[in-house]
Amino acid sequence: MGQLKKIGVLFVCALVAVIAGFASTPPQELTVLVESVKGHLYGMVSRYHKFWKDIKEPYLVVESIRREKDSDVLALKDALKYLDVDFFNESKVREIAEGAKEFNIPGFKENRKLVASVDGGLHNPSVLVFDSSWGIRDGSHDVPKFNYPHLSGVTRPDREDDIAFMTILELGALIKTKKITSSELTTIFLRRLKRYDHVLQAVITYTEELAYSQAKMADELLEQGVYLGPLHGIPYGLKDIIAVPGYRTTWGSKTFKDQVIDTEAWIYKRLKEAGSVLIAKLVTGSLAYDDIWFGGRTRNPWNIEEYSTGSSAGSAASTSAGLVPFAIGSETCGSITYPAARCGITALRPTFGTVGRSGVMSLSESLDKLGPFCRSAADCTIVIDAIRGADPEDLSSRHVPLDDPFSVDIKKLTVGYLEDAEMEVVHVLSSMGVEVVPFKLNYSIKSVQQILNFTMDVDVLSHFDKWQRIGLDDEYEVQDQWPFELRRARLIPAVDYVQAQRARGKLIREVHESFTVDAFIGNATDWEKVCLGNLVGMPVVVVPTSFKSIENPPKGGTNRRTSVTTGIYAPPDKDHIALALAMAYQSATNHHLQRPPIDDLGPNDPYYRKAK
């Protein structure tokens, strides 16, 4: 604008000069003056045109890009009707277009390059397997049980807090010897849940009436001389994607917060048969995504300023804080490993197919797994022994042939360690006679994370198609979670979904070939390993290895801590190896016995009163 103003002023001055020249200048001089003015005017006009061109061209480019984007959005909106998904408004279509360009297309290209360069389908078959049997599948779980250790001389502590942090084996010994009843334990843990839930926000529904009924039955059976095993009379919690008749199964979502599914999930049946006592339905992130649910956000007992992460948030936080002896969570991609690591407890993500999933909200049939959060690896072993087996209503479940983890001779094992392994675990196992060697898992697939997302998002969308179509995704608690991912998933073609499964098959074969050790130790929350482990169906035990000071502590000091953990990985169907190594490590250390400072943050900690 300043340049235009300058040109205008010069133009006016020139006109004034011309007029003055006509009035008083002789003809010859006037001619010279006019020619001079003309020259100046031509120069100014030329500069004006150049200036206008300089400012106009970028504007036209920007305007052209904007129109092109608007045109693309309109074209995509129009095209979506041919996919029968023309129910998105323009802002959502623009979001879909940007997500597809930035995320989907690079992954499509990588997967096609990996497995679709040769026609005919003779190589890299899909990992999707169809069972064409029309007969009733064998749902028997009559398999040999693990030979767990029987503790003797266990005494009942005087303080309830000390009882709350006992292991399953210790509590089981107290119950079996009638030093405590299941009804007493149920009261203790229900009282703790109600005491701390205002801080942790870990409970969705208390199953108090059911709990006392089951506890009474456990006590009566024991009086009759019937002992069902180490879980007899032990209270526990279930992630609230698992159906229990007569109680809400909310999936953590305000859309489904009043939902009651009158069916018994298979895993609930197994735990009931083992004599366990359900005391609460615990928080799941909304539709099993992260730690935000319709009632709030679940916190980490070791540092209540931060959140627990992962959708098995309530299961992890409750177990960590001594509110339940154990809890059941689930993982599609990270929802066992992440909250276990954050909350500083032991957890098992088992081999895919180890635990039946009927009666459980499904995200992805080829990724979903159920597993335990516990005080120790020994406790995880006891729980997985109770819940494993083929579920006749879950075609992916099977009798995984696990050996007894309590009988594994670890001195015969070769264990690798990755660059990101916690070396204390390596040194402890080495001192116990385990052969430990540097290790690297080699594979050529660069699209591991995209394969996971394509698989998971399309599967999730197939299970929540109606939810999206009628606009319930607009009610979802966090818009940049499932709503964003599932809108983007609408543009994953069937062909590229299948190519992703073929690439997944290639990944599995390469990992199998590269897995030259009996197990390996590495970071449990590295995203690449989380995606890879879930795509392969690989088991991992998460174990705490230390607790360090939090970053930026308050000036007056605090007892809050950050947990340090590692993962012990084994090949599929070799969960017993990972569990045996974890038990060996924990037999020589006490990190898993530490208690979060939820009652003792320190008087100068700003969260002290909140915890009280």
Descriptive terms for the model:
19 helices; 12% strand; alpha/beta; eleven-stranded mixed β-sheet; 612 residues; two-stranded antiparallel sheet
Structure commentary:
Keywords: Signal. GO terms for molecular function: glutaminyl-tRNA synthase (glutamine-hydrolyzing) activity. Residues 1-23 form the signal peptide. Helix 3 (90-115) packs across helix 15 (482-489) and helix 13 (448-463) crosses helix 16 (494-514). 44% of the residues lie in helices and 12% in strands. A hairpin with a 2-residue loop joins strand 6 (299-300) and strand 7. By secondary structure, it is α/β, with parallel strands linked by helices. The chain has an eleven-stranded mixed beta sheet with strand order 1-3-2-8-10-9-14-15-13-11-12, with helices on both faces. A two-stranded antiparallel sheet has the order 4-5. Strands 6-7 form a two-stranded antiparallel ribbon. The protein has helices at residues 2-24, 27-79, 90-115, 160-164, 168-176, 182-200, 208-223, 266-273, 313-320, 337-343, 377-387, 423-431, 448-463, 465-469, 482-489, 494-514, 527-536, 575-587, 608-611, and strands spanning 203-206, 235-239, 277-282, 292-293, 296-297, 299-300, 303-307, 327-331, 346-349, 369-374, 414-417, 435-438, 519-522, 540-549, 561-569.
